[in-house]
# Entry
Amino acid sequence: MPTYVAFLRAINLGAKRKFPKADIVAATEAAGGTDVATHINTGNVRLSIPLRSRAKVEAALEAAYLQHTGFEVPTVVYTPAELRAIAAHARELSEARPTLERHYIYLLKSAPNPERVEAVVGASDEVNEVVVRDRAAHVLLGAGYVAGNVDPYRVERSLGVVATNRNLNVVSTLAEKWC
# Structure
């Protein structure tokens, strides 16, 4: 049975979008997932499920999460191999920039339009940079990073793709732990 890693967007942000880990596990199991595991309370889920299409896995999870929570939970799914590749690329990018202050990875639900990618990447400057590869956009923030300013490039809106972000540590940890 295939294994996937799912990233849930916009949960546990404020009083109205609470989705505790135990509830995530229950809803994932209701969608047909087995061997379900979570990591921290930001919506990181590993599961096995007989579905073989990423789109079908996302749809099944989103339907179960909506039924369980009463609100939509956009979900971005990767295979372990895809997540491993994203983490390896992220480490390469960070290692090449020793003065980097923050590295956020936007996990994209679908591949972005090349023209939109070009525009976002083109907004990079000598201190901050956006690198897009496949379904991951890396926001590399250098000196002058302002705490709380996670997305100065408005990646999700600029690329026109549903996305959720995680920092380098979370993506690297999940790749090591689950892939």
Observations:
- The mean pLDDT is 95.
- DSSP finds six helices and eight strands in the chain.
